[in-house]
Design brief:
Elements (H helix, E strand, L loop, with lengths): L1 H9 L3 H13 L6 H13 L3 H14 L5 H14 L2 H4 L2
Length: about 90
């Protein structure tokens, strides 16, 4: 499962990765911290920062040492830097 999701993400197929992970979870599959991290990465690739950060937080909740911690920190830095007023000029 994890390797398939990684291949999809590397091929810029975030929608497929999200679908695969959601089907896995909805079918009763247990999501571990790495799967939540990968799901967060897929949402980030789609530009949905809120969903990405929610999944990173789930990963961190399950494993405080998850790489999702660094991904969440980076996402926060990017969003703190983003200036919506300048974006619309």
């Amino acid at each position: 499962m994890k390797e398939r999701v990684k291949v999809l993400l590397a091929a810029d197929k975030a929608d497929e990765a999200i679908g695969l992970l959601n089907d896995f979870h909805d079918g009763g599959g247990e999501m571990d911290d790495e799967l939540f991290y990968l799901l967060g990465n897929a949402w980030r690739k789609k530009g949905n920062w809120q969903m990405a950060m929610n999944n990173y937080l789930e990963a961190i909740h399950l494993n405080p040492e998850s790489p999702a911690k660094q991904a969440l920190d980076i996402a926060n830095e990017i969003l703190d830097f983003f200036n919506k007023d300048m974006y619309n000029q």
